[in-house]
Prior knowledge:
- By secondary structure, the protein is mainly beta.
- Helices cover about 15% and strands about 40% of the residues.
- It has ten helices and 30 strands.
- The radius of gyration is 28 Å and the shape is elongated.
Amino acid sequence: MKTLAIKLTATAAALAALSFGGYEAVRSMAPAHAGMLPAITAPASNTAGVALPNFRSIVERYGPAVVNISVEGTTKTSARGQSPLGRLDPEDPFYDFFRRFGPQLQVPQGEQITHGLGSGFIVSPDGIVLTNAHVVADANHVTVKLTDKREFSAKVIGIDKPTDIAVLRIDAHDLPTVPLGDPASAQVGDWVLAIGSPFGFENSVTAGIVSAKSRSLPDEGYVPFIQTDVAINPGNSGGPLLNLNGEVVGINSQIYSQSGGYQGLSFAIPIDVAAHVKDQLLAHGKVTRGRMGVAIQDVNQALAESFGLDSARGALISSVESGSPAAKAGLEAGDVILKIDGQPVASSAELPPKVAAVAPGKTVKLEVWRKGKTENVTVTVGEQKPAKVASDDEGSADRGRLGVAVRPLSPEEQRQADTKGGLLVLDASGPAARAGIQRGDVIISVNGRPVTGAEELRKQLSGAGKHVALLIQREDARIFVPIDLG
């Protein structure tokens, strides 16, 4: 039975799955099975006299640099009880006796060989190959097969799971390569093509267009994915996404699917992200990333109005880690980062990869929206490490305009929530409930102004307009919540 390496993700819109778009894993004893591939048909005619692209020359020139990757690994088999008579016939007169009273032998835990398939491409004539980390992770043996049927045992130089990039090396020289392009040059609507080994069908070519850019996917904070409608299936993982110049602009990595197969949504890692990771793995054997120590969220229209922004843009800081580079630079919760080193930050998803690409110890200049005006802040970037956030705890006041019953936090609760002041929500209704505020939330500030008591909260709300932004803490995270007061 053939199984796919699928990564499940919950979405608010539908119960769909983000699948690694190409790693095909099969048991070593599984029977061969031919998967059905979607038919690809060419448009009947040209539109408005514009000739459709012919990908043949690109494939002929750069196809030989695309490789098939097969991996072998092992998986643990769990211990289980087994009758000493093994497979005793149920019709045997002793079957029921041994089923009830026979001793059970505990079979020790063992290992079973597994095989997997993926794709990759050669970026250096001396045998450097790029692919996805999930293709070769935990593999005992990796084999790279070229289009001329030569096969090489590959060494895994390094993998970087946050970006899903792996670098391999094979012992060969004067190999065909494919040039790396600039993902910024690939615009929405541009033609792109993929070469890979879907379901093991080596060097299969599919084509489509760039559907969107800088897509943020759950749990993938360091990759601004390129979205395409190129047909990507299990086995395509790690293969190149090329533009009409034959340059690699991305590495095919994931698909968005309800079935595990292609449904028109494919995602590629921008090649500049992959190249940065490759260079670090080759030079140091590991990847270091910059960090500022902030939790951020998107700015929607309601939050933009609450903070006086002219449009919904930037990355809104919801909390600043104590002692972090951001804290030392004076960044505060409620600041909206609009630019980093002169580059606009249109959404919160754009900030993490930009910061991660900065070498620790270097400085960046931020343009920040604070209290109705822009300010420039210089931050010395630190090295990425797991984020630390505070926690909260649970215990009355007039519900007032907001619709909440609250009480002040005790000193111990303030310590746990890492805040001075704060109000614990005992119940929520009206505008607060409609916005998602719930019992147990801790209200930290209103429109960036800290609150320490119910009366102060009431005064701030009485002078507010139609919208306010509440900074709340829920469990171990802080987030700004826009409230429509009506």
